[in-house]
Amino acid sequence: MKNLIKYILIVLVFTGMIACDTFEPIDENRPDFDFVNSNPAAAEGILLNAYTGLVDQYSFSEAATDDAVNNQLTNGYKRIAKGELTAQFNPAARWNNYEQVLWVNKFLQIVDAGDIVWSIEPVTNELFNDRLKGEALALRALHHFYVLQAHAGKNASGELLGIPYFTEFIEADGNFNVPRLSFEATVQAIMKDFDDALELLPTDYSESPSDDKYDGIDINVYRRVNGAQNNLRISGRIVRALKARLALFAASPSFLNGQGNYYETAAENAASVLETIGGVSGLDPNGIEFYTSDDNIKSIESLWRGSIGGNSSTYEERMFPPSVNGRGEINPTHNFVMAFPMMDGTPAIQANGFDPQNPYANRDPRLDKYVVLNGSSFGGGTINTGLGGGINRLDSIPERSTTTGYYLKKLLQPDVRINSDGTKSGKPHADVYFRYTELFLILAEAANEIGGPDHQVKGMSARSIITAIRERAGISPDNYIGSITTKEAMRELIRNERRIELSFEGHRFWDLRRWGVSLNETAKGYFYDGSNYVELPSIEKRDFKSIYMPIPNAETLKFPELEQNNGW
C-alpha cells in the first residue's frame, strides 16, 4: 500500500482538466503539497480523483457465475471460475480502492487544516467547505465498502473479519501494518462516514433547495454551490441508497445473517428515497432498457451515473455475434435463460406449459430483450446458433462463436453497426453506478426478511414491489405471485428477479456470495441440431473453494498484522 503514496501528485493531471486556470511555475515546475494545500482548484483535484475506481455495470463478472461463460480463454473471470482464484491471482480484487481512500484522506487533511478559501464570501465558503467535505466522507465510505465486499471473510478460527479502515492520510514512511477490524466494526465505520456525509450534503443538486438546513440561504449562493451543474456528483440521495446497499450486504446469510438491525436499516433508507418518487408508482416504465438511448440513460431509472460519452461501439465489438463483426465474448448460459418465467409468471417448467422444443415461446418478454436467442434479429442480421448457423453456430470459431448457444443483448446499443469494411456507427453509453430498480429490490428483500411478503415499509412491500417490476416487464396477469405465501418462497422469487433485472450489471457474482448459494453450478448450453433442441449439461464447470475471497498475498507478506482469510 505504501506504493500508492507516490501517485498522489498525479493530481496535477486531473486538476489540469478541471481547473479554470493553470498552475503558476514553481521550483522545478513541480507543484508540491504546500501549493496544493492553499490552492482551491488543486485541492479539489485531489477529491475528484476519488471519483475514479467507481464500480459500474460493465465488469461482466457474470462470466464467473452460473449466468454466463466468457469465450476468451485468457479472461480473468473465466479463469477464476475454473479454479485459478488464489491470493496471487484475483481479477475481482478491490484492494487497490485504498488508493482512492488515501486521496480522500489527503483532501480531508487539507480541508481540516483550514487553509483553503473556497470563496471570499463567508456563507459561500462554508457551503463549499461542507459540500466538498461531505463528498469526501461519502467517497471514503464507498471505497471502503468496495474493499469490504471483495475481501471480508473468516479467519482460521472462524471469526468474521472486515478490513482495515483508514481515516487519516499516511505518509510513505507511516504505519500501514494495522489489523483488520471485525466485520461489524467495519460496517459501522462505513455507516458513520455515510451518516457524517449526510449532515453536510444536499439531498439533490438542484436550482432550489429541498433541505431545511438551507433555509435563509440566498438562492444564487445556493445555486453556485449546490446547483444542478453538480448533479453527477455524490449527493445525499445517493448516500442513502448506498447505505441501503451496505446494510443489505451486512445482513445477508454469509455475513451477519440477520443479526442486528441491518435489514431494518436497509429497508428504511431504501424506502426514504423511494417515497420521494412516489413509491411503487414511481418505477420507471422504461427501466428494463435503461441503456438503449440518451433519454433512457437520463431518465429517473439512473439514480447515479457517469456522464454520457460520445458515440462508440467498444462494447458491441466485444459482444456482438461474429456474423455482425463482433467477438461474441459473453455467452449467457441456459441456466440463466431458464430463470425467465413463462408469460403468466409461472416458472419455466413443462408442468406450466414450457416446451423444450419451442423453448422461447410464451416467455417473459425480458428474455428476448436481454439475450440473443437462436433465430433472433440483432445487430443488423439474423443470428442462428444451431446447425446451419455458420460462424454464429455454437463452437464454430474459437473465441468468437458462442459456447452456450446464446449471445448477449443487454447493455448493448441495438442500433450500433460494425461494418465489414471497417466502418462503424456507434452510439452513446454511460456508466451507471446505481439504478432505482436495484433500490426497489433492496427494499423488497429487506422487507421480506423482516416480516414476510406483505410486510409494509412506507406503504411498500415485497409483494407490491415484485408485482410492479414483473408487470412492467410484461408479465400480466401474474398468475404466480398470488401463490407466494411464505417468506422462503418470496425470498426465492426476489432472488430470481434480481438475477433477471440486474443481470450483466455486476451483481450476480456478489449476490451468490452474500447469500451463501453454491458458486459451483455447472454452466449449461442449448443447441439446435437441425431437428431438436438438445441441452448441453456441462459447458463449463465451476471450481470455487470458498464464498470468501482472499486478501492479496503481497499485502499479507508486507504487513504481518493483516490476517488472511481461511484457506488462502
TrEMBL record:
The keyword Signal applies. Keywords: Cell outer membrane, Membrane, Signal. Gene3D superfamilies: 1.25.40.390. Pfam families: SusD-like_3, SusD_RagB. It is found in: Cell outer membrane. It comes from Tamlana crocina. Residues 314-568 form the RagB/SusD domain. Belongs to the SusD family. It comes from the Bacteria. This is RagB/SusD family nutrient uptake outer membrane protein. Residues 41-207 form the SusD-like N-terminal domain.
